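REQUEST FORM: STRUCTURE PREDICTION
Request ID: SP-0412
Submitted by: Lab K.M.
Chain count: 1
Length (residues): 352
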Amino acid sequence: MQHCSFLRPTSAAEVIEARNIAKVFPTHEGPVFALQEVGLAVARGEIFGIIGRSGAGKSTLLRILNLLERPTTGEVLLEGRVISHLNESQLRRVRQRIGMIFQHFNLLSSRTVYENVRLPLRIAGGLSSGEEAERIGAALDLVGLTSVARKYPRQLSGGQRQRVGIARALANRPQLLLCDEATSALDPETTQSILSLLRDINRRLNLTIVLITHGMDVIRAIADRVAVLDHGRIVESGTLANVFLNPTHATTRALLAESDANGHESCDAAATGTREQLWRLTYRGATVATPVLTAAAREHGLDVTIVQGSIGRIKDEPYAQLTLSIPGANDQRLQQFCASLARRGAHCERLS
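STATUS: Completed
RESULT:
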């Protein structure tokens, strides 16, 4: 079934944009800066991940994007229009174009699945009963819950309740979907099913998604681009592959190591018991299935030891990242070795 009625394309390149956002909370001990000089722009149809530890400012930033929190300074733009100065009446209309998924579902226990999904439509108003029924049916079909429309949240599993939350967020046919730790209350298997659903919704509807999480594995599974938030500032951002495979900030490297997504990043000569130079080899895509390391090592007569490595997938793309020890090679041979790897689609850099 094609849900083309959800698509509402416009000409603006960015769906949501934050410009130089700061948020200051007054306290008895003085002002607390929750966000400082934060800027980001999310393009139409992409999945943008924001990651950071607890207290980094993720939830505050997400609430500012739909103006549940007003920024102390800076601007928020939706579809190229500044919305941060709008009054509450104007914001209510704007928020109908922004769906929200919550960590703990936020469903009304006394209402059925159908009535929970219907709620934002009733608040928005302007639709006939038949139009409401069509939207609710399309949303429930999209998340695979048509058969439980008359059940109550207590009769559903955690994954099903989150799917109800997603259907409710889609009922008003938003341009933007904000996800606040949408999988952190779920078990790993259910988490993967919800992430698969979000990917499917993104692809089928070209729906822009911004999600916050403390889990690198969630970002790795779903995001196109990512921003790393630390103490209220974006310390690193870029495409998913670049940030994961070539992290530049200590916070990013620590988050990767903690998630075991890139544990070899901290590998050094002392840890491996070798005094040889260590190199990091990175390659992805179709190159992962080819013997690039073996071919380059044979070409230059080098003995190469794989000290540590990681092979997996970043979203839909396979990757490999290996830590290598290369004894007994001079600088010229090592440069030639790296050039040979580059010709084969791999990147090599010295670690120590």
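NOTES: The chain has twelve helices and 14 strands.
Reviewed by: T.R.
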